[in-house]
Write a structure and sequence with these properties.
A: mainly alpha; MetI-like fold; flat; B: alpha/beta; Rossmann fold; 2 domains; six-stranded mixed sheet; 20 helices; globular; transport (chain B)
């Protein structure tokens, strides 16, 4: 078998295994929390009899393992269960919220990924000179400040003082694409600041590392221009590290938006998760956890596979 | 039109250095070098590392590696001073008029692109040929350089061909745009001695057939004597001697040149085998995890106390694997190792501290074998603490003794490895292994990364230390001159087997088996016309070809 097919299928199998492990972990952890769904529905003042009855009714008295596999089986069929609080189908609610979160993440990624790579190249071009140092200083500052603080600072100046954008990033189906973009401008901006530094510095490091290779010297000594050297000779070899860090940050954009969504009251997955945790809506928390795990593992798997495909030694074995 | 292609006048080259803890400052590394090169001629630039020979070679392409800057003088190529010409003209020069062949083709080819794309790139870029013409020319060059399957080898990626083949591809890459001048920067140094001959011959014929001029840079005078018309000897950025090849080789004027010509002057009387042995390797067969073939097949060798066994062979012959088996890093599949009268466990975990102490190792790369953040005193003191529990004044006294033995002295005690030269680093590694008072030291290519004169010093030191400390050496090397200089017995390895084994005089006396003959005849000799003679008399091809 071609080694690439073997490696890629290994990655896929490993990804599924990880996802399975993550689901078990998430289920196990929520089981370990004090209180359960019945307690959450009836509240603190419920009588023990009422609790016992409800537990019987909801099937909570059965062994945890049985309930786990029922739950897992449901997920595999696309059934994430019902919310305890509003009895709505979780899959439907998550679908809409996930769409919103992905929309915000994509908007941030569309700006931040090209910007980070461009700034990284710029830093390489002027390495150790003032543009390089300025880029490093700014991106490092923004990544060092907690994102909720950046969020509030941005709200204070841009929406309160200047009044350019609304501080609430509410979107709904009736809005046009442009209106939606306008609404998410601030959270997208904050997210961009958060993920920019790592991608930019990784691009800089990856390309700088390559610029010292002997084959870059060979290319320079062929009389190629700087741009040709970078585009034809450095870039093909830098794909793998860059894709890895980009995927890691994309995953962060989806999974790590909780804080930013709360700050800007954005109706995405993060808000949904935080709301459900405060309401002790266990099935929703479980479902959100699994969706986040799937996104995270999936994107990292894509990065791994791109790295494998970008390696000529694996593509063309001896 | 004048026949002078390259005219260098009073070339000065500088660099900015950033020493740790000091302010950056400028230093000069080439101090006013002048020479001429006519069309179709070959000039050899020779010297040790730091002599500035590569720097001068690259200056003919107006290129400074790293932070190197061309600070003064003139470099005339095809009638204009390239230090004063425009950026676009320099781009035309590079790859178009002057091409470069580096020491390590393996590193100089882009791993992500096919060989053909890289070979024709400069010719197409400079509009010398269309892509199709350039590919045709590349295939002709592949054939001329003796590459297998010249029509299709260009479709491969660099990692799919051998090191010797890649070095020839690099030569094709340089010759493809029909340059006027090719700078060969140690093109055969990284190759096995048997492969070196083939590549050297291919380069020489390519130079002759295409009529291109060349700067041939090397530290090996015997090699440069085979290919060049003139030779310039450089030392620390100055010209030592400049003349035609015959004069430099046969009638050197300067002391330094004489030292280079007569290098490897160590005389070592072979010791007779004694009945007792310090190491006996019996029937060792070994393979690496994940491989489905053996790397060592039934290896038997013996080493007597206070003597030197040289294990010699090309890369891939299994000599370093043998060292890994003896040190316990690679447990053998079969066979036994007896050391100092006791059976050694095949696995490192099964060995006692005494086993570890009595069997030391010195490596090829001294700088990566030492912790850069420890001082020389700490590095040498560590085995004293670990094996002998020495502390304080006693330890210090012993460290100073050892530093004296390696001819460095007490003042080196508080220095860091980065402050030492390559030869000094290797000396510290020797002192560290001696600190354990071993019965035997495995020396794995310990002089391969060093300049010839420095390497000679290390070999002399090792021989002297052997007399004082009565330590045995298992000396792994690919260099037959080193073998001649220090061994008492020799094992020649080829494809995982010992093909010839015995005392030095037996192994180095005819009749030879075919492989030993190939190996011995491949060592460059310092007389003109040697290359043609040896190629005419060869019986077999090298394995790594």
């Amino acid at each position: 078998m071609h080694p690439i097919i073997k490696l890629v299928s290994q990655r896929l199998a490993l990804g599924l295994l990880l996802l399975f492990g993550a689901s078990a972990l998430i289920f196990g952890l929520t089981e370990a929390l004090p209180g359960d769904a019945a307690q959450a529905v009836l509240g603190q003042s419920a009588t023990p009899e009422a609790l016992a009855n409800l537990r019987e009714e909801m099937g909570l008295n059965r062994p945890a393992l049985t309930r786990y596999f029922e739950w897992l089986g449901g997920i595999l069929q696309g059934d994430l269960g019902q919310s305890l609080t509003n009895k709505l189908d979780i899959a439907e609610s998550i679908g809409k919220r996930l769409g919103n979160t992905l929309f915000l993440a994509c908007a941030a990624a569309v700006v931040s990924v090209p910007l980070a790579i461009f700034l990284g190249l710029l830093a390489v071009r002027y390495r150790n000179r003032w543009p390089d140092k300025l880029i490093s200083a700014i991106t490092l500052t923004t990544v060092s400040i907690p994102e909720f603080l950046i969020g509030y600072v941005v709200i204070y100046f841009v929406s309160v003082k200047l009044g350019w954008f609304s501080s609430l990033a509410m979107i709904n189906d009736t809005m046009s694409f442009g209106q939606k973009l306008n609404a998410i401008a601030l959270p997208a901006f904050v997210l961009t600041l958060v993920v920019l530094a790592q991608m930019m510095r990784m691009t800089r490091a990856a390309i700088l590392n390559l610029m010292q290779s002997a084959y870059i010297e060979t290319a320079e000594l062929k009389g190629l221009s700087n741009f040709q050297v970078i585009a034809r000779h450095a870039f093909p070899n830098a794909i793998s590290p860059i894709v890895n860090v980009v995927m890691l940050n994309l995953a962060y954009l989806v999974v790590g938006v909780v804080v930013v969504e709360v700050v800007f009251v954005y109706p995405g997955m993060g808000q949904y998760l935080v709301d459900s945790v405060t309401k002790r809506d266990v099935p929703v928390v479980l479902a959100c956890g699994v969706v986040f795990a799937a996104v995270y593992i999936g994107l990292n798997m894509v990065a791994d596979i791109v790295s494998i495909l970008a390696n000529p030694r694996l593509r063309h074995p001896k | 039109m004048s026949d002078t292609l390259l005219k260098v006048r009073n070339l000065k080259i500088g660099a900015t250095v950033y020493p740790p803890g000091e302010k950056p400052h400028d230093i000069e590394i080439v101090h006013g070098v002048s020479f001429d090169l006519e069309r179709g001629k070959v000039l050899g630039l020779i010297g040790e590392s730091g002599a500035g020979k590569s720097t001068i070679g690259l200056a003919s392409m107006a290129y400074g590696r790293g932070g190197v800057e061309l600070t003064g003088g003139e470099v005339w190529v095809n009638g204009r001073d390239i230090l004063k010409t425009s950026h676009s003209d320099i781009r035309n020069l590079r790859g178009g008029e002057v091409a470069y062949v580096s020491q390590s083709a393996a590193a100089s080819f882009n791993p992500a692109k096919k060989i053909m794309d890289q070979v024709v790139e400069a010719a197409v870029e400079h509009k010398k040929f269309s892509r199709k013409e350039a590919e045709g020319r590349a295939r002709e060059l592949f054939a001329k350089l003796g590459l297998p399957d010249p029509d299709n080898i260009g479709d491969r990626y660099p990692h799919q061909v051998s090191g010797g083949q890649l070095q020839r591809c690099m030569t094709a890459l340089a010759l493809c745009p029909e340059p006027d001048l090719v700078v060969f920067d140690e093109p055969t140094t990284a190759l096995d001695v048997t492969t070196q001959i083939d590549v050297l011959m291919a380069i020489k014929e390519a130079i002759r057939d295409t009529g291109v001029a060349a700067l041939y840079i090397t530290h090996d005078l015997a090699v440069v004597a085979q290919v060049s018309d003139d030779i310039m000897v450089l030392r620390m950025g100055n010209t030592v001697e400049y003349g035609n090849t015959d004069q430099i080789i046969n009638n050197p004027q300067e002391e330094y040149t004489k030292a280079l010509v007569s290098v490897r002057s160590i005389e070592h009387e072979e010791k007779k085998p004694t009945p007792e042995s310090v190491l006996s390797v019996e029937g060792i067969t070994a393979r690496y995890k994940g491989l489905n073939f053996d790397v060592l097949h039934n290896v038997n060798v013996e080493l007597h106390p206070g003597q030197t066994l040289a294990v010699v062979g090309e890369s891939g012959s299994g000599k370093s694997t043998l060292a890994r088996v003896i040190t316990g890093l690679l447990p053998p599949r079969d066979g036994e190792i007896t050391f100092a009268g006791r059976k050694l466990s095949g696995d490192l975990k099964g060995r006692s501290r005494e086993d570890l102490r009595e069997l030391q190792m010195i490596y090829q790369m001294a700088d990566v074998a030492m912790n850069p953040r420890q001082t020389v005193g700490t590095i040498i003191g560590r085995p004293l603490e670990f094996y002998f529990n020495m502390r304080g004044a006693e330890k210090r006294k012993r460290i100073i003794e050892l530093l004296d033995e390696i001819e460095l002295g007490e003042k080196y005690m508080d220095r860091y490895p980065a402050e030492l030269s390559g030869g000094q680093k290797q000396r510290v590694c020797i002192a560290r292994s001696l600190a354990a008072k071993p019965k035997m030291i495995i020396c794995d290519e310990v002089t391969s990364a060093l300049d010839p004169l420095v390497a000679d010093g290390i070999l002399k030191l090792l021989l002297d230390l052997q007399k004082i400390e009565d330590v045995a050496y298992l000396f792994i090397t690919h260099d037959l001159a080193t073998v001649r200089a220090i061994s008492d017995s020799i094992a020649v390895m080829y494809q995982g087997r010992v093909v010839r084994y015995g005392s030095k005089s037996e192994v180095l006396s005819p009749p030879f088996d075919d492989y030993t003959d190939l190996l011995l005849s491949s060592v460059p000799e310092m007389h003109l016309g040697w290359l043609e003679e040896v190629v005419a008399h060869r019986k077999m091809e090298s394995a790594g070809n």
